[in-house]
Write a structure and sequence with these properties.
- By secondary structure, the protein is of the alpha/beta class.
- The protein contains nine helices and eleven strands.
- The chain has a seven-stranded parallel sheet with strand order 1-2-3-4-7-8-9. A two-stranded antiparallel sheet has the order 5-6.
- Helix 2 links the parallel strand 2 and strand 3.
- Helix 4 runs parallel beside helix 6.
């Protein structure tokens, strides 16, 4: 049983979530959360149809800050962004968001880019399949290796607190089966990525979003990947990557069991220059 509920990966109608800021807060209060961090998708100053539009960033900031004041006696509210990493376009770096003064940033890789175009690893199964075929000419190993190379570049170039869903490339692999997590080359990609992450101050999230949305019955990162993170001394938090208010605490207790099994003794949520720690 989790001792204190906190979620720092929360999406609203400002991006691709299904609830307003207030609806998310009220659900968190009802579920007994002590803190909630909002993390609207951002590739500021650009956007896709599921990112916060550049013109809406200040409205998003104002809505979250207003909720923090409105509900301050019931729950702590933090302002954040889930910032995309796309080389030459956007980097999850505090300098790029200084005008909004967020309490934290999540750094995430959703897109892959090469000379043939771009594709997303976080999309409908048929769209991931199409990207693999058209942008990568069915070279699944290169697709996966490029994903983790993007992760390593983001960790080196970025300046953010939380590392979002570190092995998101697994999302549609259960259906498409374009690679095996048991292969040596794949495990080597994880090990090399952990080496880079260990040189930063990031907190990796145990993300239950795939469970909530039925993409797979497992967390990001996998148990093997999480073990590597633990062995490298990289701290973790538990986040639901919530897009629906009812899923705010999706599989939290199960995530605690996973973390404790591997050896973690605490969760860490970095925000506003400080940390919230929860013993497991």
């Amino acid at each position: 049983m989790i001792k204190e509920k906190i979620n720092f990966h929360t999406h609203t109608i400002f991006c691709d979530g299904n609830n307003t800021v207030d609806e998310m807060v009220l659900s968190a209060i009802e579920k007994g959360f002590t803190a909630l961090g909002f993390s609207g998708h951002s590739m500021f100053p650009f956007a896709s149809d599921w990112h916060i539009a550049p013109r809406e960033h200040l409205n998003y900031v104002n809505a979250v800050r207003a909720a923090a004041e409105k509900y301050r006696d019931e729950i702590k509210i933090f302002l954040g962004f889930e910032a995309d990493f796309i080389p030459s376009i956007c980097v999850p770096h505090k300098d790029n968001f200084k005008d909004f003064n967020p309490d934290f940033l999540i750094g995430s890789v959703h897109y892959l880019v090469n000379s043939k175009g771009n594709c997303s690893v976080d999309d409908k199964t048929e769209n991931v399949k199409m990207g693999l075929e058209t942008v990568y000419e069915n070279d699944a190993k290169r697709f996966v290796c490029d994903y983790f190379e993007m992760q390593r570049q983001m960790l080196k170039q970025g300046n953010f607190e939380i590392w979002g869903h570190p092995d998101l490339v697994r999302k549609r692999n259960g259906i498409l089966q374009f690679f095996s997590e048991k292969e040596d080359w794949y495990k080597e990609q994880l090990k090399e990525t952990v080496k880079v992450a260990a040189k930063t101050n990031v907190v990796a999230e145990i993300n239950s979003g795939a469970i909530a949305r039925g993409a797979m019955d497992d967390f990001y990162p996998s148990e093997y990947f999480l073990t590597l993170l633990y062995e490298a001394g990289i701290p973790v938090c538990i986040n639901s990557d919530c897009h629906n208010a009812e899923d705010l605490d999706c599989a939290f207790d199960r995530a605690v069991i996973q973390a404790k099994k591997i050896g973690y003794k605490e969760l860490i949520y970095p925000a506003a220059g400080s940390e919230i720690k929860i013993d497991l």
